[in-house]
Amino acid sequence: MITRFVPERRRKLLSVQWLLLAAAALAVIAFATLCPIQERPRLFANPDLERFAAFVTLGFAAKLAFPRRHVWTILGLVLFVAGLEAAQHLVPGRHAHLHDAVVKGIGAAMGVQLGLAGLVARRAAAWRFRRAPEVAGDYGRMGLDAGEPN
């Protein structure tokens, strides 16, 4: 059996496409949080659902942008949430509530966890894909066709 040598690639510290998406999400969230209330964009009837969805998106993109920095990504996003809520005190007509910060923080953490799950699933699929020729070779030695069930 001939096995080809496939060097184990080191994971990148940074993914530029996901970093750009995370930066765009960060800018949109900062605008929506700090703009006057009448200019705030509305997507859903429930503002908590908007906050949660926005920060899940940000957390997911941030995790895929920084795949090796799990705890630091969550900590950075929670600090960003706290900073935005504190900055709302400077904007006339806006108010900061602990409830809003908790919803945003949970959304960011959930997005980071979903990003981690995506990375794990991608790694598992890549492992199965690399292992497929070996499994086909095992079937050939047993006298079975790889496509036939036992």
Shape: elongated
Q: Strand count, sense and closure of the main sheet?
A: none
Number of separate domains: 1
Report mean pLDDT, rounded to a whole number: 81
Helix content: 55-70%
Q: pLDDT below 50 for ≥5 consecutive residues: which ranges?
A: none
Radius of gyration: 22 Å
Question: Oligomeric status of the shown chains?
Answer: single chain
Please count the helical segments: 4
Strand content: under 5%
SSE inventory with pairings:
Blueprint (H helix, E strand, L loop, with lengths): L15 H19 L12 H19 L4 H18 L10 H44 L9
What does this 3D model show about the protein?
- There is one protein chain.
- The chain has helices at residues 16-34, 47-65, 70-87, 98-141.
- The chain is mostly helical.
- The radius of gyration is 22 Å and the shape is elongated.
Properties at a glance:
150 residues, mainly alpha, 4 helices, elongated
